[in-house]
Amino acid sequence: MRRLWILLLLLVGCGEPVPLDPPERPAQVPETATWAGGLKGGSWFECTALDEPGLYDCTIYDDYSGDVEQSGVFATPNRVVLEEDIEYQVFTGYNIVLMDGMILKPTFDPWPEDSEEF
Fold first, then answer.
1. Nearest to 75 by CA among 45, 46, 96, 99
2. Most C-beta atoms within 10 A of its C-beta, which of 45, 66, 83, 109?
3. HEC string for 24-82
4. Diameter of the chain by CA atoms?
5. String of b and e for 43-65 (b: at least 16 CB within 10 Å)?
6. What's the Cα-to-Cα distance from 43 to each of 19, 38, 73, rounded to whole Å?
7. Model pLDDT for residues 50-73, shown as the tens digit of each residue
8. pLDDT tens digits for 31-54?
């Protein structure tokens, strides 16, 4: 039984996750974009602070094709101003989740009813 527990601990790991290297940057993704993701993939993020506090003009790119997944103005909760170096975690297809747990929400409807994408 003890061996089973030791094996389980080795499989699960005991520490911080190992950061992954980003995939090769597609040609259409700007050099200023930052990659964030995991074993199943990720996204390239480029967000620029706007003049109004807590608003950011963001473009999210597919990590391999470089296609734009979403683009528009995103807002922090209560219009909190972010640090200059934003650390991204994941794009959910709707929100941008940051490493500190904060969520940037779109100020627009990312899936308008007249969209022919689906």
1. 96
2. 45
3. CCCCCCCCCCEEEEECCEEEEEEEEECCCCCEEEEEEEECCCCCEEEEEEEECHHHCCC
4. 61
5. bbbbbeeeeeebbbebbbbbbee
6. 15, 10, 17
7. 999 999 999 999 999 999 999 999
8. 999 999 988 889 999 999 999 999
- Residue for token digits 């391999």? 64
Q: How many CB atoms lie within 10 A of CB 95?
A: 15
Residues, the chain, total? 118
Paired tokens of 74:
């995103």
